[in-house]
Amino acid sequence: MHPILKLVAQRLALGLLLLWAVSLLIFFGVEALPGDAAQAMLGQSATPVALANLREQMGLNDPLVGRYLHWLGGFLTGDLGKAMTNGQDIAKSIGQRLGNTMFLAFWAAIISVPLAITLGLLAARYNGRWPDRLISGVTLATISLPEFVAGYLVLYVLAVKLHLFPSMAMIFPGMGVFERLHAIILPVIVLVMVVLAHMMRMTRAAILNVMQSAYIETAELKGLGPLAVIWRHAFPNAIAPVVNVVMLNLAYLVVGVVVVEVVFVYPGMGQFLVDHVTKRDLPVVQACGMIFAAVYIVLNILADVISILANPRLRHPK
Amino acid sequence: MSRIPLSALIGLVITGAFFFLALTAQWVAPYDMAAIMGGVWDPISSEHWLGTDAIGRDLLTRMIYGGQVTIFVATCSTILSFVLGSILGFTAATAGGWVDQVMSRLVDLVMAVPTLILALVILTAVSVSVPTLIIVMGLLDSTRVFRLSRAVAVDITVMDYVEAARLRGEGQRWVIFNEILPNALSPLVAELGLRFIFAVLFISTLSFLGLGVQPPLADWGGLVKENATGLVYGIPAALAPAICIAVLAISVNLVADWVLARTTSLKGGRGG
C-alpha cells in the first residue's frame, strides 16, 4: 500500500476510535456524576417514590452496559430515543434544526475563509507596518469579545440603531433562499467576526514562519517582488498549516454557533441544546452533545488528513 | 527591572481597578444589590449613573456586584485548574510509563470535545451552583494546564540535577516541588493570564445561556441576559456589562502579552 494511504487510513481509524471513546465519555461520564436523569428532572426535593417510579419508567434500573449499547446502537441507526420532557422523537426534532445550523455555519465559512486568508496574507506582506498593526489590533479586540457580546453589539448597532437588518433570525420551512439569507445576515456577520480573528492571526503566523526560510531569502535576492515571493514560494509551503487553521476554526464554529443562535433566536441545534439543558432533558442533551462532538472531531480528522496530503514531508515519512 | 511598556501599564491599571472594585464592592456600590429603586430601564441620571435595569434596580450597583461574582468565579476556577493541572502534569512527566500514557490519553479525550459542549452535558446532570460551576470549569480547564506543565516538565526531568536528586534518594513529591516546579514556573505564570481570560469568557457565556450563576445573584454574563430584551427597543443597558467583559479580557491580555514576552526573553524560558 502507498505509505500515504496507510497514513490516512491510520488517521481515520484513530478518529473512529476517538469517536467511540467520546461516546463512552458522554454516556458514562454523566452516569458517574452524583444524581441521575430522574433526579435531574424532578429536582432535589423529589420524593423517593416519585424518583423510583420515574427511574423504572425511564429504564434507569436496567444494567448500565446494556443501556449504553442500546443508546449507541440507536445512534448508529438514527434512532436517538425520545425526549424526556415531551416524549417526542429526538431524531425528528433534530433533523430540521441540524439543517438550519448547517445553513448558518456554511455561509459563515464561505465568507470568513477567503477573507481571513487574504487578510492574513496582507498582514504578512506588510509585517510590522500600519496595515499589519491595524489588522492585528482589530483582531485582538475581537478575540477578547465573547460571542454573545459581539452578537449584541452587532445587533444593537446594525439592527436597532441603523435598521439595516432584522434583529431576529426567524426562519421557517417554505422560505425562499434569499429570504433565508436576508434573515441570517446578522448571525453570519457575528460568526465571521468570531472565527476571522483566529484564522487570520494563525494564517499570518504560518506565512511569517515560512518567510524566514532560506529559499525565501534566495527568491528575494534574485529580485522577485514581495507579492511574487509570497504567492510563488511562501504560500505553497504554508498551505498545510493554513488548511489546518481553517479546519480548526470551522470546528470552532460549532461552539460559536450555539451561543449565536441563542442571541438571534435562530431555530437551530444550539438553541435546541441550550433549551434542553435548562429543562434538564438528559437524553436530548446527550444526543446533541454527541452530534456536536462528532462534527468537531470529524473536522479535526479532515484537517489532519488534508495536511498530510498537502505536505510533501509527511507524504514521504522516513 | 526593565521598563514596563505603555500597553502593559494600561492593562495593569485597568485590571487592578476591576479587582479593587470586586474586593470592595460592598462599600463602593451606591445602593443595595437587590433593591428596586425606580422604573424599568430608567435613563442615566445623577442618582443612577448607568440608569436602572429590567426591573428597576440600580445598574451601576448590579455591575459592581456582577464584577465581583465574575472575577471571584474566574479566579477560583483558574487557581483550581492550575493546582490540579500542574500537579497532575508534573506527576505524569516524572512518573512516565503507563501512568503518563493513561493520563495523557484521558486528557486527549476530554480535549477532543469542545469545552462548552462538555460543560453543557455535565451541567444538565448536576445542580447548578457557584461551587459546582467553579469545579466544572476548573476541571475542564485543567486539561490545558496539564498539557503545558507536562510538556515543560518532560524537558526538565531529563536534566542532571533531577537525576542527581533521584540518585540521592529523594521521593517523587520532593522532586516535583523542589526541582521541577521552580524551573517550570515562568511558562506557567505566562499562561496564567490567558487561562484567567478564558475563565472569564467561559463563566460569562454560561451565565448568558442561563446555565451559570443563578438569580438573584448575577455576574456580567447574567446581567447581559437580564437586560437583553431591552436592546430591541433601543435601550443599551445590556451593553454595559458586555463591554466590561471585553475590557477586562483585553486588559488582562495586554498584561499577559508582556509577561509572555518577558519570560521568553529570560534564560531558561520557552525561547531558551
Characterization of this structure:
The complex is a heterodimer of chains A (318) and B (272). With 318 residues, chain A is mainly α. Chain A has a domain at 103-281: Orthogonal Bundle (MetI-like fold), CATH 1.10.3720. Chain A is built from 14 helices and no strands. In chain A, helix 1 packs antiparallel against helix 13 (282-310). Chain B has a single domain, classed as MetI-like (MetI-like fold, Orthogonal Bundle), CATH 1.10.3720.10. Chain B contains 10 helices and no strands. Classes of the chains: A mainly alpha (318), B mainly alpha (272). Chains A and B meet through helix 1, helix 6, helix 7, helix 11 and helix 12 of A and helix 5, helix 8, helix 9 and helix 10 of B.
Q: CATH class of chain B, anyone?
A: Mainly Alpha
CATH top level assignment of the domain at 103-281 in chain A: Mainly Alpha
- The number of helical elements of chain B comes to 10
Q: The CATH topology of the domain at 103-281 in chain A, please?
A: MetI-like fold
CATH superfamily of the domain at 103-281 in chain A: MetI-like
Order of helices and strands of chain B: HHHHHHHHHH
**What is the overall pLDDT average of chain A?**
79
Kindly summarize this structure in a few lines:
Chain A has 318 residues and is mainly α. Chain A has helices spanning 3-32, 37-42, 48-58, 64-76, 90-125, 130-144, 147-161, 177-183, 185-211, 214-221, 226-263, 269-278, 282-310, 312-315. Chain A has a domain at 103-281: MetI-like (MetI-like fold).
Keywords:
heterodimer, A: mainly alpha, MetI-like fold, 78% helix, 0% strand, B: 272 residues, mainly alpha, 10 helices, 73% helix, elongated
